[in-house]
From TrEMBL:
Name this polypeptide is given: SnoaL-like domain-containing protein
Matching Pfam families: SnoaL_2
Superkingdom of origin: Bacteria
Record organism: Rhodococcus wratislaviensis NBRC 100605
InterPro entries: NTF2-like_dom_sf, SnoaL-like
SnoaL-like domain span: 7-102
Length: 121
């Protein structure tokens, strides 16, 4: 859903109905709410590219952590003026994964404050 070509409707095949993502301290609950959040997020970044930097998991694969980068051009990201400025976002995600591979939850932290300051400078 994040790597090109983005396919946010793959969420239906990847996450459980009661999926929870905590992003920047805010909990988004449920598959439909997550899909809506992804679509809104993606609409604010032109030419979005998602780059996995490093991924690792515990022994049984129930916990997966990744370091990632995202690039693109500003199309109103974080409520800013859609001015085409370059976007470079870095982050960390920690996933809970069921035995069948479905994603149960995700916690994401990213350099949003630093990026927002740069976009509004």
């Amino acid at each position: 859903m994040w790597q090109s070509p983005q396919e946010p409707h793959a969420i239906d095949e990847l996450v459980v109905d009661d999926f929870v993502i905590v992003t920047g301290g805010e909990a988004i609950r449920g598959r439909d709410a997550f899909r809506e959040w992804v679509l809104k997020f993606q609409s604010t970044v032109e030419d979005l590219e998602f780059i996995p930097v490093e991924t690792f998991q515990n022994e049984d694969g129930s916990r997966v952590a990744s370091l990632w980068e995202m690039t693109g051009r500003n199309r109103g990201f974080m409520g800013t003026e859609p001015d085409g400025q370059p976007i470079h976002l870095t982050g960390t995600a920690v996933w809970n994964v069921r035995a069948d591979g479905m994603l149960e939850s995700n916690r994401v932290e990213r350099n949003a404050w630093e990026l927002h300051r740069r976009l509004t400078a």
